[in-house]
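Q: What structure does this chain adopt?
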Amino acid sequence: MYIDTEADLAKAVPVAINAKTHRYGVCNAMETLLVDAPIAQAALTALAPIYREIGVELRGCERTRAIIEATAASEDDWYEEYLAPVLAIKIVDGLDEAIAHINKYGSHHTDAIITENFSKARRFLNEVDSSSVMVNASTRFADGFEYGLGAEIGISTNKIHARGPVGLEGLTSQKWVVLGNGHVRS
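A:
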């Protein structure tokens, strides 16, 4: 999840808390939080005490650790799918850096931006290479049932055949049967 400098913190805080803590051991739980530098002080000082109270271990970049108490994040933390109460936090300098970080380190599963800027939201949706991208919503909504696919059977971050949550229809293939009686195509 990326909290943009033009985010409404009244939205950003509960969405970021929900995305990480609703359930830890699921594929759509937030594992890395990116925060735009101009809003980092306000966002992180609002979020960190809530995460700590819930029992989430925070791992942060050097700039994050200058604002809140956190363990030093390693390069491996940016790739990690913890499936546990652990969150990596990085302060970035704008949308370009956030998108580059997500496309390099992310799982290509689900990513979200919190912003009130429509143009930035559109860029994020178009340029982040993930099977689900969201604006001002918890990553926990990335689910086949939530998307109206019925029971979710799996999820795919591939680009072909299925991408995103997969329901029964997405796992089935078609077989075309043509019965002719000397038919020709003209």
